[in-house]
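**Protein of interest**
===
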Amino acid sequence: MAAATGNDDNGCFDNQPKPESEPAPVNLSPPLSKNAQKKQLKQQRYEAKKAEKKAQEKEQKRKEGERKLKEWEETLANATEEERLKLIESRKSLRKERMEKRSEEKEKKMERLNRAKEIGQKIVVDVDFAHLMSESEISSLVQQIMYCYAVNGRSTSPCHLWLTGVQGKMSTELDKLPGFEKWFIEKESKCYIEAMADQKDNLVYLTADSETVLDDLDLKHIYIIGGLVDRNRFKGITMTKAQEQGIKTAKLPIGEYMKMSSSQVLTVNQVLEILVKFLETRDWKTAFFTVIPQRKRTGLDPVDCSKLEPLSEEHLEEEAEADESDLLERKKVCVEVPLESSS
């Protein structure tokens, strides 16, 4: 005799079968190729090495702080009362100056960002690919977005930045960023096609597969950068997405100014920085040579050499600084690279 599973209000047994458990979610990502597995393993080793280096730098910073504090205490101990008062007052004055300068810079930054929101160029980072990425890949993309925000904030001609498709795991990871809730950007859980439905005719998705070369940035247009880790697993995904949504596409005119090396992967922050640098200079050559690291280019396109003037010493210095500071680029957080093929 079967055991009763429960009873209703009238004391009768409930013979209804228990609902079956929900099936496990299906992983929509295609299986990794052997080459992709090697890349993933290499990335994991890099991440482990970077974490170790970060821990060493943190320890070194702590020791340096202790050394400076000890030196300060010794200086005060060996000074007369009058000298001590002067040293303390001088230190307070320097600290106050730094705080005032920081506050002034913050005010100027907010003025620039407010102006960009009112009349500036709108640029969207499409993060609606989280379902195709692993946790580590999402984490890497989040760091790229953090770098995008920092680059845009420092710019003399910033854009107005949008994040669309912010939901699920992506939203959770973004919320972990210090001060993310105070970022001066637009955050949308919806896709841009819904969030900007009234401006659909002005949407332009930047993708390498487009036949349209971007000659200039138009304030009426809203340019979209697609964020996706290891794009080789999803070739042409942003172009397909744009075509299905019926929006314009374009690619950056990189092929007119330089030849890329075998690795034609640009990170989300690099594409954003190229666009922001162009807004500052209205010069694609300066934007490309300032942002794209030397290791990613093989030289100028011979057809266009006659059109180009030598880079100034200032630009060469900026390029060197960009190479040194471009640590996040090596995380291989990829986009559908909106560059023009040089072939």
In short: The beta strands are 122-126, 160-164, 186-188, 203-206, 222-226, 248-250, 259-260, 297-299. The radius of gyration is 26 Å. The CA atoms of residues 152 and 327 lie 17 Å apart. The first helix runs from residue 34 to 77.
